[in-house]
Prior knowledge:
Layout: E1 2-5, H1 12-15, H2 27-40, H3 42-53, H4 64-69, H5 76-94, E2 101-106, E3 109-117, E4 120-124, H6 133-146, E5 150-154, H7 165-173, E6 178-180, H8 184-193, E7 203-205, H9 210-219, E8 225-226, E9 234-239, H10 245-256, E10 263-268, H11 272-285, H12 291-299, E11 302-305, H13 309-319, E12 323-327, H14 331-336, E13 343-346, H15 352-357, E14 383-391, H16 393-409, H17 413-427
Parallel strand pairs: 1-11, 4-5, 4-7, 5-6, 7-8, 9-10, 9-12, 10-11, 12-13
Antiparallel strand pairs: 2-3, 3-14
Helix pairs in contact: 2-3, 2-8, 2-9, 3-8, 5-6, 6-7, 8-9, 10-11, 10-12, 16-17
Amino acid sequence: MQRFFHPPVDQWERLLKRPTASYSDLEPLVAEVFDAVRKKGDSAVIKYTEKFDKVQLTSLEVSPAEIQQAQHEISPELQRSIQNAKRNIEAFHRAQKTEKVQVETQPGVLCWQEKRPIEKVGLYIPGGSAPLFSTLLMLAVPAQIAGCNEIILCTPPNASGTIPAVIRYTAALCGIQKIYKIGGIQSIAAMTFGTATIPSVYKIFGPGNQYVTVAKQWATRFHVSIDMPAGPSELLVMADKSADSDFIAADLLSQAEHGPDSQVIFVTTAPSLLDAVQNAIENQLMTLPRRFIAEKALEHSKLICLPTSELAQSFINAYGPEHYILCVEDEKEFLSNLQNAGSVFIGNYTPESAGDYASGTNHTLPTNGYAKQYSGVNLDSFTKSITFQKISEKGIKGLGETIMHMAAAEGLDAHKNAVSIRLKKLADGL
């Protein structure tokens, strides 16, 4: 990891940069796959699955028998862990339900807002070396609570053309029966346009590699919404002398092992912690099975000592971390001044892993600085708010003059007439 001691503010811009590659060179391939899937449907999906994933599929959909069999393929201990995590995620997201908001803005003018579920959503779960069944919980649980009518799942097949049992089990546990063994660009295109086998959706959720990231952004060109812009995973730890260097190192490595393009940042006001954390990282790193992935991530990660808490708080807000661990004596000051973060983990005994798996909060979060303007996935991500209004005779009499003056000032006479014609009939007793 690179070390920085009291870097001046005018050098922060360089420290705030993420290891994000330009995606513009991927767009021609994404456009090609989208065009093929739109024109040829399932056959194009099968073709690109063979090309990219080296798997020749005869069927895109996971059968009911495969879904049912999953519970016999994973251990009871893992099943209990997934069930416990699901209960916590349900509890937290169910608590996010809000009642109808209603107000009479002036006599006879009643306005209210209600939330309705997005009818059709698509969940994308990456495959590869670590099938992210935890992400499936994070997306499927709030989708079910929100009441989405149709929830489909796309996830890449393994070398044998099947979906990992833990993904199938978790999907079944969450009530998802429409599972498709496709990944990458072709799966996003299929959910965008629909094929003979795969339904189109209104919104696509889920993380993925750079190809999936670009494909999701491409999907928005075709009136499909996405959860948020995505990038490599990241973590910032802020700690002072009250923190445990072994805990800090473990948390930094837990995020670094996600992928070679992940980034972890350690910020402190205690100079002695720089050496302590770096030594702990080196010792723990040697024991990790995914050591070589973590090492790549550490190459563009940073250890930063700043002279004051105020500067540290400013740096954290400027970075806007996806995950933010805070281990300081004066945590209230840091929290009251926090503006930008995806999810916050407070104290020595709150590892980021808790939020990744089982505490209940959602781990699908804004990366690459988007925490400055985006929220992580939550119950509202699966709904849209609709406003309503009902105006009585008394209400239109009281509000009408305001509307007419404003419409006339904008030169929109038809808007004005829509009110004046009502007021005239009321005045005439008609």
